[in-house]
Known about the structure:
By secondary structure, this protein is of the alpha+beta class. It has 3 helices and 2 strands. Strands 1-2 form a two-stranded antiparallel sheet. The longest helix is centred in the middle third of the chain and has 13 residues. The relative contact order is 0.19.
Amino acid sequence: MNVRKRKRLCQGISDSELIDKYYKTGNMLKKVAIASILQDRGYVPKDVKWLKL
Length: 53
């Protein structure tokens, strides 16, 4: 499954759930899709956290 499809599947999930999924998953495609959604929602990665701008 490509990043675009994964991104669509994760759209209804809350920010905290996505952040949780980001750190628990080992699949890089999932991480890229989740990171893209979080960045679209105004989050930026900082050290080992996601900060809301």
